[in-house]
Every structure is written in structure tokens, then in C-alpha cells.
Design a protein that fits this description.
45% helix, metal-binding, Parvalbumin, two-stranded antiparallel ribbon, calcium ion binding, single chain, EF_hand_dom
Length: 122
């Protein structure tokens, strides 16, 4: 299964283009632009499974670094700063990886309508 079977190719392209510059990636904004905030919990679970490249049940920092490339293979990798901020925001138990409960980062963006990148309180 690919992400384009869940999200539209146009929306993915727009989201990738929005964060082309290094250190411009904002998870909340990315999820809004690509349409993930409008998806069902079942679709969010599928996306989590796709992003969990090694099928370990967790998304580790090395997988997270290549997050954008899971959407579009030619996309850039996240910077160390972006990867760390994303991981901190999504790592509910502070074990250095995003587990099944980390799917909440996708669900949290549904609660906010603003495009501002604010990882505080995610």
C-alpha cells in the first residue's frame, strides 16, 4: 500500500512543496495540507503502518528523518533539528520512538484549525 492510495497525489505534492527549504517542516501544517487531518482513524493507522518502514510497531528517528521521502521519493530528508522536534512532539512516553500511541500526533492536528507551526502541546 502506498500513501497515494490514502491521500491525493496533488495534496501530497502541495505539502512537499510547502516544506522544501531546510528547517521549514511543520508536522501540523504538513498534515493539514496533505489532507491527513481529514482522514479516519483507520486511514491514520494505515499511514502509521506505511511510515513504520521496518514494521517494528514504532517509528524511530532514522525512519522519521526520511518521513518526506515516504510521501515522495525525491523529497528532501528532514534536518536533525526537524527530526528531533517531530520526535519530541510525537513521542508520548519519551522512549525515543513513536509507538502506536504516537498516532495521536496525527489525531492532534484535527483539533487545531490554525496553520501556525506550534509543536508545543501536541
Amino acid at each position: 500500500m502506498s500513501l497515494s492510495s490514502i491521500l491525493s497525489a496533488d495534496a501530497i505534492d502541495k505539502a512537499i512543496k510547502d516544506c522544501q527549504a531546510p528547517d521549514s517542516f511543520c508536522p501540523k501544517k504538513f498534515f493539514q495540507i496533505c489532507g491527513l487531518t481529514q482522514k479516519s482513524p483507520q486511514d491514520i493507522k494505515k499511514v502509521f503502518g506505511i511510515l513504520d518502514n521496518d514494521a517494528s510497531g514504532y517509528i524511530e528517528d532514522e525512519e522519521l528523518k526520511f518521513f518526506l521521502q515516504r510521501f515522495t521519493p525525491s523529497a528532501r530528508v528532514l534536518t536533525d533539528k526537524e527530526t528531533k522536534a517531530f520526535l519530541v512532539a510525537a513521542d508520548g512516553d519519551s522512549d525515543g520512538r513513536i509507538g502506536a500511541a504516537g498516532r495521536n500526533i496525527f489525531l492532534c492536528v484535527k483539533r487545531t484549525a490554525k496553520n501556525k507551526c506550534d509543536l508545543e502541546g501536541v
